[in-house]
Amino acid sequence: MNSPSENPSVDDAPILHIDLDAFFASVEILDDPSLKGKPVVVGGGGDRGVIASASYEARRFGVRSAMPSVIAKRRCPGLIILPGRFDRYEVYSRRFHDIIRDLTPEYEPLGLDEVFADLRSLRRLQVRPIDAGFELRRRISDELGLLCGVGLGRNKLFAKLASKESKPTIVDGRLVDGPGVVWVSPAVERTWLDELPVRSLWGVGPATAAKLHKLGLRWVRDLAQVDEATLAQHVGRAMAATLVAYAQGEDNRDVTVDRAVKSVGHDQTFATSLVGLGEIVQAAKGHAAIVARALRDANRVARTITVIVRFDDLASVSRSQTLSFGVDDEYAMAAIAEALLQSVDLARSVRLLALHASSFLDRDDNNMQLTFGLDPSANDPREQAEAVSRERQVSHEALRDAVDDVRQKFGRTSVGTASELTDHGVEIKTQRGSHAFGPEADQNE
DNA sequence: TCTGGGGTCCTAGGACCC
DNA sequence: TCTGGGGTCCTAGGACCC
Length: 445
Known about the structure:
Dna Ligase, domain 1, DNA polymerase, domain 1, alpha+beta, Alpha-Beta Plaits, DNA-binding, 17 helices
């Protein structure tokens, strides 16, 4: 929108946002150059799959990320759908972060392919944000072979909107280069923002956009003038406050370095829906093995276990239980999950099962002694499950440590439990694939 | 055209404590 | 018989982001 003619200081453009173009698809093309120039996407190829990342060649056909694969194939009959190799993307992501870190340690990743950076600590070095942006693009292109867009602005809101503006676009089926680096100068902020649709603001998705449209609010300039209390009645207090602030160009979100993870989980949509408690509990055990491993890798234990079931009509229900202690054992987690699933009406067939763990404690702070009063013969099924879970968490400790120890020394595939092996087989048909357990995954740690 | 899997945050009601 | 107010935690659901 405004190709920078000036060269702002870090005080005029303190926040940088950088976003890799078509990241997953681009990595696939780098690893297999024969894909170059072809419509390539990464995503689930089955009936229930969606597109995670689309090359620009695929976008020319109207294929977009988050689009169901069935639709994408219809729009682009020759579409190449790849299952996704997240260990590879993580390698590239780390190298991407390394390049950002060379500029400043004050950066915050969002997913694998985006970063916000706060440039203010570079004031003394006389760094010019626009020069820094072009230099990042050059290095990412030279060293990684990837393209990206850079946005600069007074806050995260403008930096992110600007990076979007910096990207290539498709006009009449043709790819048009973007400027690469865009700065929203304070002088143009107001007019720039006014012309955007409300949907382009952070936090406005399909549901909120529909509510806003119903209220006659289509453009950011409409939002900038709305009464916050009235808006709050429709979208909630917090949303109303942030939307009005954003619409006025105000965004006080900091660039947060080292954001702590608050939950880990595993979701799986089944190619064929599951029927009945038995099948679902069996699947939950596989989920528990994956989530427990992630917890131990992060050296955390979780007090809250949540199961989410989605039925074929896409309605979902969740059940959660918070324990008086933390778990990182798959059998301890599975005991809770099973009890939670028993409280769900499973008359309908189930297309998705998710298992999440949250309310983390440091492993060293997990005081199991406080829980000796638990009675496995209690009447309340939740108390019962908690007692069983505690017993497993305690009694498997030595085994877990031994297994983790062997894995540390000899790699992940060297030893495993039966449920993990079963799960491994099940996982092959999903995006996650078997690679997560392979030797490559270990090299990257 | 029919919606994945990794997450984050917000809301609202109820329980419980002081 | 009528009944507070604030704070925190837990549960269930919803929306959003990449």
